[in-house]
Task: structure prediction
Amino acid sequence: KPLQIWSDSRPPNSESESIYSAAQHARQLDCNIYFVHVGSRLAVDTIIKEREKSASSIFIETCPHYLTHTIDYDSIAGKVVPPIRTKDDLERTWSALENGIIDTIGSDHVANKLSTKRGKGDIWSALSGFPGISTMLPVLLSKGVNEGRINIERVSEVTSYNTAWIFGMYPRKGTIQPGSDADLTIVDLEMKKKVSADMLQSFSDYTIYDGWNLQGWPVMT
Result:
């Protein structure tokens, strides 16, 4: 399977080694560090260990595809960096999100066309990344809130409050109070839609969620 090959070529231990090295530099320089696109058990567990011995703040971001897709997704459309991993890695990422270990969610959106994404039709020439911004919130609402993994408050934390706080924008952003920017998203947790590329208002003409039935969609901003 192409995504198995891609994952094997960039194994989780390479993530772990890089995390260890970066955390060492952060301690030496007494600075905070923000690890993005974390989606493997080993990466999560390594960051937890580094948090325990660090006076610096270490933050974790993951992406929706690390919560929904594994190497069994039989398409080079799923090529991304770091690679999508195993079912075990997916479950560990969900657990870290549920338990407050993961701080934020990012879309890792890459607005490319499928013809460009595919390269020469093999996993090595295919481009990394895929569209994800339009499905980020529906995935969290459908697979997270409506399947009982996280509550709506947790969604607000990882998509807004925590991000604003980490990057020094709180309380101008990330909260509903006098004086803060009024960027509000209204969601319908009962709304059900079948995902297709043409409904996502994107330059891209494909999505790794094509044909998925998701419950919980934004209806107004």
Summary: Helices lie at 2-9, 12-29, 41-52, 65-68, 87-98, 114-117, 133-145, 152-166.
